[in-house]
């Protein structure tokens, strides 16, 4: 079933809103990716923070929902608030669902409480677990919007918000609701940053996906919100043609080196979308710039697109790896390439040092000169892969 994604609201290291993010995306602007102290002891890793102004809290939002994670969501949702409220008016509050993805929710807002527990062996009086509850993003956004349909948050590590989009599509297909507010958010968080550092996966320099000199990820933060419906209510809507997933459970934190699980998700998405590999005009790669992810993803892409030279790029050097928000953020970046406002079909550049790893299959990385093929519908694939062998692929297409 084809479902439709209206224009996204989004905030990330590339900026805020469609116009700013689109301009900086196509320019390959990495200015939001900077060394930042205070996150890892003795190091200044490159991180992708959103530095814009965040909205003030509406008075009725309870204190336990007032986290940075939820403010990123609110900033994104405010950008498309008229469309969201119009959906409530058309369908009724009980027919509008909220499905989001996150990996940490508001854990970082409780850091001081954890320090107090370690020092005093007791929680401080102000500690409130609900700040970090995984249910908080969807509960908060439902409360703010006044939607009373199903509301829940998915947490499958770095596929969380891609899974949220697939789940939203399923809810519409089953007739559970008529519109879904979907997407995800993850704020910078000491827990995850130091966790990845403990795995030796965090780079102190700008990440270089698929390079012979890749040295690990840059973590970022983002909030992304879409309105998904069966019919395109908003001008310029883009179709979510299909999605697929797999769960190979190869290892707790390392991917199957053969890429078999990733390839299975990509095949499932193409089949669900009724799209042949030859029709895909651009791939937004997961491309974390870690040794193992890039190697296995190269093999998976080669298996699905042998000798097709499909333009592809990782956008991680522009936004950082936004973890639970990454799937929705990269779907939003694909959305921008499919939007009719992108008249010439320009594709974002793959930002790296242009030093390919000779041990990896060759990929056709997009540059500023790449375009979707003229005269046919544009189709984009967006990959998201996570710990535990949790793999997800989305297929998006233009309205043409």
Please characterize this protein's 3D structure.
- The chain is an alpha/beta fold.
- It has one domain: Peroxisomal Thiolase, Chain A, domain 1, CATH 3.40.47.
- It is built from 11 helices and 15 strands.
- The strands form 2 sheets. Strands 1, 2, 3, 6, 7, 8, 9, 10, 11, 12, 13, 14 and 15 form a 13-stranded mixed beta sheet that branches.
- The chain is globular and about 60 Å long.
List the helices and strands and how they pair.
Layout: E1 3-5, E2 9-12, E3 15-16, H1 17-26, E4 33-35, E5 46-48, H2 68-79, H3 81-91, E6 96-101, H4 111-120, H5 136-145, E7 151-154, H6 160-173, E8 179-186, H7 190-198, E9 222-229, E10 238-247, H8 260-273, E11 282-285, H9 291-304, E12 311-314, H10 316-319, H11 326-338, E13 364-365, E14 379-386, E15 390-397
Parallel strand pairs: 6-7, 6-8, 11-12, 11-14, 12-13
Antiparallel strand pairs: 1-9, 1-10, 2-3, 2-9, 4-5, 8-9, 10-15, 14-15
Helix pairs in contact: 2-5, 6-11, 8-9
GO biological process, one term: fatty acid biosynthetic process
Keywords: Acyltransferase, Transferase
GO molecular function, one term: 3-oxoacyl-[acyl-carrier-protein] synthase activity
Brief sketch in words of this structure:
The chain has 400 residues and is of the alpha/beta class. It has eleven helices and 15 strands.
Features:
400 residues; alpha/beta; Peroxisomal Thiolase, Chain A, domain 1; 13-stranded mixed β-sheet; two-stranded antiparallel sheet; 11 helices; 30% helix
CATH superfamily: Thiolase/Chalcone synthase
Q: List the secondary-structure elements in sequence, H or E.
A: EEEHEEHHEHHEHEHEEHEHEHHEEE
Percent range for β-strand residues: 15-25%
Helix content: 25-40%
Main β-sheet, in a few words? 13 strands, mixed
CATH level-two architecture: 3-Layer(aba) Sandwich
Overall pLDDT confidence: 95
CATH class term: Alpha Beta
Count of distinct strands = 15
First CA to last CA: what distance? 17 Å
Q: Remind me, CATH topology?
A: Peroxisomal Thiolase, Chain A, domain 1
> Based on CA inertia axes, which overall geometry fits?
globular
Tell me the count of domains: 1
Please count the helical segments. Answer: 11
Pfam families: ketoacyl-synt, Ketoacyl-synt_C
Enzyme class: transferase
Keywords: Acyltransferase, Transferase
Protein name: 3-oxoacyl-[acyl-carrier-protein] synthase 2
